[in-house]
Amino acid sequence: xxHLRSLMTLGLVLTLAGCSSLAPSxxxxxxxxxxxxxxxxxxHGRFWQNRDxxxxxxxxxxxxxxxxxxxxxxxxxTLLLDGGDVNTGVPESDxxxxxxxxxxxxxxxxxxxxxxxxxxxxxPAVLAMQRKLAAFPMLSANIxxxxxxxxxxxxxxxxxxxxxxxxxxxxxDTYKLGNPDNMQGMDFRNPIQEAAKLVPELRSKADVVxxxxxxxxxENGRHGIQAPGDVEMARAVTGLDLVVGGHTQNxxxxxxxxxxxxxxxxxxACQPDRQNGTWIVQAHEWGKxxxxxxxxxxxxxxxxxxxxxxxxxxxxxxxxxxxxxxLAMLKPYQDFGQKKLHINVGxxxxxxxxxxxxxxxxxxxxxxxxxxxxxxxxxxxxxxxxAGGVRDSLPAGAITYKDILQVQPFGNTLCTITxxxxxxxxxxxxxxxxxxxxxxxxxxxxxxxxxxxxxxLQARIGGAFVDTDKRxxxxxxxxxxxxxxxxxxxxxxxxxxxTGFVDAEALRGYIALHxxxxxxxxxxxxxxxxxxxx
Length: 534
Ligand SMILES: [Zn+2]
Description:
By secondary structure, the protein is of the alpha/beta class.
């Protein structure tokens, strides 16, 4: 009788366990689990769709909700991860400290994100606010302060018994790329060394190990002067199943082993990179795609079954309806952001000349002002600006963000290139030859040309002649970097860095800091213009 009662109690306990939806804490032998990893990266303030109706978090929600429902109805599990850089990119987001973006991510139920370098563009107080606002962890294992990790290094998930570890890593270049004031006392340690320590630990706790990184995907590991990225890490650290990356803002789709498909067409098949048994994915930027990696887990093996980059209302791709709840939540932020564009950011005692008739023919104070803002933002030695990148004048008196966006409407980002003195002179002589009247006509800041009879002979930077053995940092915009207005293409140069800072935002910051502006300080002088010096 006693024996029977014990059995009955045991049965009751088992039944209760079965009913209480408590999932088994470890995988069941010979069971196949479907696990779908959804991913985005480099959102950069794009909570709202663009003028052409592309991307935006409302359509992103429709895509993600649809996949989650589909996977769940088939008995599978999903995780939604982001590769970092939620911040910085469009004024409506920047002016509201990316609050709409983080709220949008909450509504999308992100499970975790990597900390990107642009998460340090704002003050530490803003970052603290964002961390509090986010209903998901911001992960980074390699950022330290006073010997302690500043963020959670990883998070463990249990998907029906399969234990999934997601760790975060951030590029070591963060300190170099951002404003040191926002990173005081922080130590960005080598993420590959950090991963090498952490992965074995995570392998003992989890069945699947994923890295959400903001380190960049460099074809065949060729990272130039930038810190090593996902490919280099996967080659160096064994035991990673998947890297959900960011930072280089490319679709990580391969044409062949170690050969990137640089002309990837939205909506077509994407073959993710694979290094040392680790899959590496990246979904371009701005929420243009939702990456979808369908895996199966069975008896210790995690197999990629299917991969796709799902375009979110990109041109010539299927139309996706916007989720009404997301739209309703974001609309007030979008309206408020647009209203904020009309608030004064600074003042000046005169007009800054940007009229096409002048700015394409001679150096103007506006060209100088923009060049200075580019140098200040990036700590470059000198700036070269194409006249075609200047679309309007800045009025005397009060200056609004709207005025600034009229001058620089393209959302170009600032790119720095570390060059030898020889390369500097070559580039400057190309700039010097740009014909007046054309968009390529060059405005120079921080550099003085020495010319005779229409030929550039030498140049001075910081008062000294350019030394062919020395290295210098030049800042240009992303349009020029890809060969716009007839400039040499620089994106493949080993010293090339796209800082991700938007030109208009750099100008806004400069004007806010230096107001009231005195136009005479920006008068094109011989040491700061392209005009010949005898
Ligand atoms: Zn980045």
